[in-house]
Design a protein that fits this description.
The complex is a heterotrimer of chains A (172), B (400) and C (181). Chain A is built from four helices and seven strands. With 172 residues, chain A is an alpha/beta fold. Chain A has a domain of 99 residues: Beta Polymerase, domain 2. In chain A, a hairpin with an 8-residue loop joins strand 3 and strand 4. Chain B has a single domain, classed as Orthogonal Bundle (Cytochrome-c3 Hydrogenase, chain B), CATH 1.10.645.10. Chain B is built from 17 helices and six strands. In chain B, a hairpin with a 2-residue loop joins strand 2 and strand 3. In chain B, helix 3 runs antiparallel to helix 4, helix 4 runs antiparallel to helix 5 and helix 5 packs antiparallel against helix 6. The relative contact order of chain B is 0.18. The model of chain B has no long low-confidence stretch (mean pLDDT 90). The chains are: A alpha/beta (172), B mainly alpha (400), C alpha/beta (181). At the A-C interface, loops of A face loops of C.
Chain lengths: 172, 400, 181
């Protein structure tokens, strides 16, 4: 078990930047107990393949992925954050990609990790991120007939049509 | 874009039946639908539909102050709510960067292991019920009542506990709580042994569960399995050991691991985990350290009433905590705990406001339920029912 | 509408040696009330509290609900336990329509009564938006004692109902309000 501190792991992966990230690395840092890497969206699949199978990385377990929405950030309005885990060495990292609203296409990782299938459907359901290469990209948690993406910041939490609760009593 | 699921087209050679299992069905414990394509009794394909209890937890968490999110986390895996609560509190504590006193850690461990036992009681007895053995359910649920009584003494609620505080526990366990814990530790092993003798080597149960719904370790890891389901497939990944939290590194316990990843292995892993949990609770009770039950966090912990009425500072803190106007640092954190079903993760992004900017729950049931079609393909319908109950899919955690 | 629980089980009537004469309404009511077959429509946390109510400690079976029916065609009492989302509402309605008269609906928990703590875009704010409800049990989740109290109130309703109610104009109007037939 090669136990590395987050900073050591960050440096270990950066020392192999060419092999793992190619030229896709935008920025990297260590945030508390996770090395965080931000990469270019267009090279996502290649970088993830390297992170999964390269001998010095071997991140064979996709813990989770989630979408993010930062309105008014222009080019970095939407994002997807991946948490990867190398089980034998207990290495955990966080990988982020950001993209604007005009270009919501992100490569699907379901060919590398089958677990990404439903996770990506959930983020499509919530944010409208189009995962390219996904076998069955449709809504998973919300009703099929829903015509908006509810987790985006512009939409309210409450159901707009409810009439039995008055906002003024709920502090809204 | 088509919204209809991928159901195979009618095959001219064979006559497949389409069977709709759920969403309301006695054996699906929770509401999820499976449209099965069947060749007689053998399952050829399954298309699950979930979301029938989608309550928008992630959106709800963006609109509630940090203390008010604890009741929401209760309702994730509601069979073991304290684990969810503690996981959330630990995620916030990681964000604000505070040290928890050892005594609070040990108290948390006792509560988490009790709720793990409660969760595994539900799963194991329900596997038995689904194969026709109602007795175990009735016997062991009596012991769940005892666990509920302990929770009620500590926090006032049985099921959706909202237990503990950010920074530790709110108060010491009372005399009655300690007595109840001791009684539970003395009496429950006998009941668990009875259930063990009744079911584990029972010819009917063994015949029904061995080799049903198997999954190999490689496929399980590829599908993101964690928890008892992964350990039944042969991988000994337990968050309590790999990334210890809440002083779990102080405790000695084994991780039961199965071989085939079938229903029997999942049942046995949970059975053995209950024994390990009992051992952990015993260690925690006997090695309980002294000290405060809460970290020194005036921004999160309500000050004592005498101080609120006499000191200006305490009054302001009290007001800010109750109104949810505490100052939270900016940053993001991912923290995971070993829930009843596996790695329950909280990815919290804070922008300094009174509510989280984004809170993502890594829900184990949601992730491993994807593998269900693969696990039941080629098996019979009655085996599919047992596979579903042995996976312990909790609807609240599935849909969030 | 308040319902008083009458501890005196024996209805009014004329008693003699070997016979008891009373009105049909009362006998039918007594039979119905003490043999309600519930349909546990358990969706979330309240379902686990229902399992605790059904188990040996609180034992629902002593009130006549020994046989839980998961098929709506064979059930009398629809117990809706847990949050009903908008995706689930048509299914709930379909299950209710499949039940044969006389049928009662018991709504357990805050989520089923009014949406509970989930005032969100995906949760139906109370099942009485789609089906008529007879008894509401508040709580999150309600204690098993509260559930038993709710069942006893349903029993009182069943006892005092009368045989002609389901064909009356008033009842039909109530169903029509929900768009049911």
């Amino acid at each position: 078990m090669e136990a590395l501190t987050p900073q050591e792991l960050h440096d270990h992966l950066l020392s192999r930047e060419e092999a793992l990230f190619g030229n896709a690395l935008v920025s990297s840092s260590v945030d508390r107990d996770f090395p965080v890497f931000e990469i270019e969206k267009d090279q996502l699949l290649a970088v993830m393949k390297n992170l999964q199978s390269h001998a010095d990385a071997q991140f064979g377990f996709l813990t989770t992925l989630c979408g993010m929405h930062f309105p008014e950030q222009g080019e970095r309005e939407f994002g997807v954050v991946y948490h990867l885990h190398n089980l034998p060495n207990n290495w955990r990292i966080r990988v982020k990609v950001f993209f604007p609203k005009a270009d919501m296409k992100v490569a699907s990782l379901s060919s590398l990790w089958p677990t990404a299938n439903w996770m990506e459907r959930q983020e499509f359901d919530f944010f409208g991120i189009q995962f390219q290469g996904h076998s069955d990209l449709r809504r998973i948690l919300n009703m099929d007939e829903m015509n908006y993406f509810p987790m985006r910041k512009e939409y309210p939490l409450e159901d707009a049509g409810r009439d039995d609760k008055q906002d003024k009593y709920f502090g809204r | 874009m088509s919204q209809t699921p991928n159901i195979p087209v009618h095959d001219v050679e064979k006559d497949y039946t389409t069977l709709n299992l759920g969403p309301t069905h006695p054996a699906t414990h929770g509401i999820f639908q499976n449209v099965l394509t069947m060749d007689g009794e053998i399952i050829v394909n399954a298309v699950p539909t979930i979301g029938y209890i989608h309550r928008a937890f992630e959106k709800l968490a963006e609109h509630r102050p940090y203390n008010q999110i604890t009741p929401i986390t209760d309702r994730l895996n509601y069979c073991s709510s304290p684990i969810n609560n503690m996981g959330w509190h630990m995620a916030v504590e990681k964000l604000i960067g505070c040290e928890i006193p050892k005594r609070a850690d040990y108290m948390r461990v006792i509560i988490m292991e009790l709720s793990r036992i409660a969760d595994h009681i539900v799963c194991d007895t329900v596997i038995a019920v689904d194969s026709g053995a109602m007795t175990g359910f009735l016997y062991l649920f009596q012991w769940r009542e005892k666990i509920y009584e302990i929770f009620e003494d500590i926090c006032g609620a049985r099921l959706t506990t909202n237990i503990g505080r950010i920074g530790g526990m709110n108060a010491e366990f009372s005399e009655l709580t300690w007595k109840r814990i001791h009684d539970f530790l003395e009496q429950f092993p006998k009941a668990l042994e009875e259930f063990d003798k009744l079911v584990t080597r029972n010819r009917i149960f063994v015949d029904r569960t061995i080799n049903t719904g198997p999954i190999s370790a490689e496929r399980a890891l590829a599908y993101g399995f964690t928890g008892p389901n992964l350990r039944a497939a042969g991988v000994d990944y337990d968050v309590r050991v790999m990334n210890p939290y809440s002083s779990y590194q102080d405790f000695k316990f084994d991780i039961p691991v199965g071989k085939n990843g079938d229903t029997y292995d999942r049942y046995m892993v949970r059975m053995h985990e209950m024994w390990e949990s009992l051992s952990i609770i015993r260690q925690a009770v006997s090695n309980m350290p002294d000290g405060p039950v809460h970290a020194d966090l005036p921004e999160f912990f309500l000050p004592a009433k005498e101080e609120v009425y006499s000191s200006m500072e305490a009054l302001i803190y009290h007001f800010k905590i109750v109104m949810g106007e505490t100052d939270i640092p900016v940053g993001e954190v991912y923290h995971s705990v070993e829930g009843g079903n596996g790695e329950l993760g909280f990815y919290l992004v804070s922008d300094g406001g009174r509510t989280p900017y984004r809170l993502h729950f890594r829900r184990p049931s949601f992730i491993y339920y994807q593998a269900y079609p693969e696990m039941i393909k080629g098996g019979m319908l009655s085996d599919a029912i047992l596979t579903m109950s042995s996976m312990n899919v909790i609807a609240g955690e599935l849909d969030a | 509408m308040s319902v008083t629980i009458d501890p005196n089980l024996k209805p009014d009537g004329v008693e003699g040696s070997g016979f008891f004469a009373t009105s049909l309404d009362k006998v039918v009511g007594l039979a119905r009330a003490n043999s309600l077959w519930p349909l546990p429509f358990a969706t979330s946390c309240c379902g686990i509290e229902f399992m605790a109510t059904m188990a040996s400690h609180y034992d629902l079976a002593r009130f006549g609900s020994e046989r839980l029916s998961f098929s709506p065609r064979q059930a009398d009492l629809l117990m809706v336990m847990g949050t009903i989302s908008k995706k689930m509402a048509p299914i709930l309605r379909q299950v209710y329509e499949q039940m044969a008269e006389p049928k009662w609906v018991l709504c357990m928990g805050a989520c089923a009564s009014s949406g509970g703590i989930f005032d969100t875009y995906s949760v139906l704010q109370g099942i009485d938006r789609v089906i008529p409800v007879d008894v509401y049990i508040p709580g999150c989740p309600p204690r098993p004692e509260q559930v038993l109290d709710g069942i006893l109130k349903i029993q009182e309703l069943a006892k005092s109902e009368g045989v002609g109610r389901r064909n009356s104009a008033e009842y039909k109007e109530r169903l029509a309000q929900y768009g049911l037939k």
